[in-house]
Specification:
mainly beta, six-stranded mixed beta sheet
């Protein structure tokens, strides 16, 4: 317990890869050594370990060095989605083979960092490009999304459902900082507007007070209905304007 351990990283061709001098606790040690970007492809990395006071030394197994995978142009084909929309997710890569297995994980973004996993989709990167389609569905009741006024009490602001995706290749994750951009939900509502007497308010101007604190002007049809498929998700209150004279 507390024994000193010394570790040096090397490659088969003699490139140094850093070193550590730490303590062992519970008969275990875990550490990290960075493989230099100057290491050539095909070289073999390994580490040497010593316990000086115990007079022990050993050498690890060898692993092949490959170029760092780079991911660029992660994006959705739309900035906003409605229920049932089919979306295209895409990304481009460098330093991967012609055909590589990957997994795309879609998360619902949370301002506090507690992102919820929505879907996990196996895919394949071909010719250094990834592209797949995903049908967007939202199964929750948008009326339960806290409004901007409700969140002000806690020093927060309205946040609609937003999504980003991550690409996982052999344990490496790309896009964890929302490089794909955030996809926003837009909701469709069909609202029947009645006047103070309970009569359908046909062909009347109304103001829609939305969950994010904004307003939108609209007009009912000849049956007193307002239909809109571009609303921010959440509760809507309707203000009926006086009829035109």
């Amino acid at each position: 317990e507390g024994a000193t351990i010394e570790i040096k990283g090397n490659t088969e061709n003699g490139r140094k890869c850093g070193k550590l001098k730490e303590k062992i606790y519970g008969n275990r040690f875990m550490g990290e050594i960075e493989i230099s970007e100057k290491v050539e492809e095909g070289d073999q990395a390994y580490f040497e370990v010593k316990l000086p006071k115990q007079g022990l030394k050993a050498e690890s197994n060898y692993i092949p060095c490959v170029p760092t995978i780079l991911c660029t142009r992660m994006q959705w084909d739309k900035k906003e989605a409605r229920r049932g929309d089919v979306l295209t997710l895409s990304a481009e890569f460098e330093n991967v083979g012609e055909s590589v297995d990957a997994v795309v994980v879609i998360y619902e973004y949370d301002q506090d960092g507690n992102h919820d996993k929505i879907a996990s989709i196996p895919t394949e990167i071909k010719n250094r490009k990834m592209q797949l389609t995903w049908e967007y569905e939202y199964h929750e009741d948008t009326d339960e999304i806290p409004t901007n006024d409700e969140l002000k009490e806690y020093g927060k602001s309205y946040n609609p459902p937003e999504y980003f995706f991550v690409v996982v290749i052999g344990g490496q994750k790309f896009g964890v900082e929302q490089e794909s951009g955030l996809l926003r939900l837009r909701d469709r509502k069909k609202i029947l507007v009645l006047d103070r007497y309970g009569i359908e308010a046909a062909n009347r101007e109304v103001t829609l007070h939305l969950a994010d604190g904004t307003e939108k002007q609209a007009q009912t049809d000849d049956k007193g209905i307002v239909t809109d498929d571009g609303l921010v998700p959440g509760r809507v209150s309707v203000e009926l304007k006086p009829p035109k004279q």
